[in-house]
């Protein structure tokens, strides 16, 4: 039962997280907030973090048998997956403007960008040619 609960709360978190950044929701919020919309990205990140904490705490408090161990030669595979995850995270950091990603640039400039790029066009240089979300992919590989 506790693993069913785990699946449900992770699914809910992912749905809420994705919905809050969808074009439909952000368009609606932008119309409602007007000039105050510049704070939305910061609110989004704070809300995502605050709602992630209880999900992680619940996940970490589950006790169970180990399903898989990286023993022997498999430890080499674990090492390479860790290198890939770190590389994806660093490559993503090169492509993102972290102040814009967090929402601070929008607050300072008063401009609300619809995407990660200032123009609103989806960026595809570097690692973004390979994966749209290098940090998500890195986190999945890490886990």
Describe the structure.
With 143 residues, the protein is mainly alpha-helical. It has two domains: 1-64; 69-143, no CATH class. The protein contains seven helices and no strands. The chain has helices at 2-20, 23-33, 40-61, 74-95, 98-102, 104-109, 134-142. Helix 1 packs antiparallel against helix 3 (40-61). The two termini are 22 Å apart. The model has no long low-confidence stretch (mean pLDDT 88).
What keywords describe this structure?
about 140 residues; mainly alpha; flat
Task: Summarize it.
This protein is mostly helical and 143 residues long. It is built from seven helices and no strands.
Rg value: 18 Å
Order of helices and strands: HHHHHHH
How would a crystallographer describe the biggest sheet?
Answer: none
Uncertain segments are none
Compute the number of helices.
Answer: 7
Strand element count: 0
Determine the mean pLDDT: 88
Structural class: mainly alpha
* N- to C-terminal distance: 22 Å
Kindly give the count of domains.
2
Task: Provide the β-strand percentage band.
Answer: under 5%
Shape: flat
How much helical structure, as a percent, in the residues?
Answer: 55-70%
């Amino acid at each position: 039962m506790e693993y069913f609960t785990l699946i449900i709360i992770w699914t809910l978190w992912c749905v809420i997280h994705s919905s809050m950044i969808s074009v439909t929701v952000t368009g609606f919020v932008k119309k409602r907030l007007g000039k105050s919309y510049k704070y939305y990205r910061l609110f989004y990140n704070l809300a995502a973090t605050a709602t992630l904490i209880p999900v992680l705490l619940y996940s970490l408090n589950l006790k169970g048998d180990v399903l898989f161990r990286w023993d022997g030669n498999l430890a080499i595979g674990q090492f390479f997956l860790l290198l890939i995850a770190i590389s994806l995270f660093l490559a993503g950091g090169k492509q993102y403007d972290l102040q814009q990603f967090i929402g601070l640039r929008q607050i300072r400039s008063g401009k609300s960008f619809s995407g990660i790029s200032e123009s609103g066009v989806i960026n595809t240089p570097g690692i973004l040619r390979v994966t749209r979300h290098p940090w998500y992919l890195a986190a999945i590989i890490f886990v």
